[in-house]
Amino acid sequence: VELVESGGGMVQPGGSLTLSCTASESITRIYSMGWYRQIPGRERELIAQSLHGGRTNYVDSVKGRFTISKFNEKSIVYLQMDSLKPEDTAVYYCNARLIYDLQYDYWGHGTQVIVSS
Predict the structure, then answer these.
(1) What is the rounded CA–CA span in Å between residue 28 and residue 56?
(2) What pLDDT, in 10s, does the model give residues 7-19?
(3) What is each CA distance from 19 to 25, 29, 34, 111, in whole angstroms?
């Protein structure tokens, strides 16, 4: 499964960005699509996830600021990021898991988000 991300960049504190991730796999085979982020020297962390059936999960630090879409018929998921803070600066990675192979993680190449004045 190939995951292609777009939408990263630089924004001032309080600003917004929208990330998108397109999967090469059919939506009927996808169990979850989500976004992780990694800051240098720290582990990659799950921040938002969209699950088969429509449920979504968020890490506490982004609740109320970030919104992940349900993955649509084109196997695209969006992450709307509002009220961005400098501590949101990281490389953001798209992740996917398939219904028939939940143990394996598929990753995009990552997109840089910088929040700075």
Answers:
(1) 17
(2) 999 999 999 999 9
(3) 19, 22, 11, 9
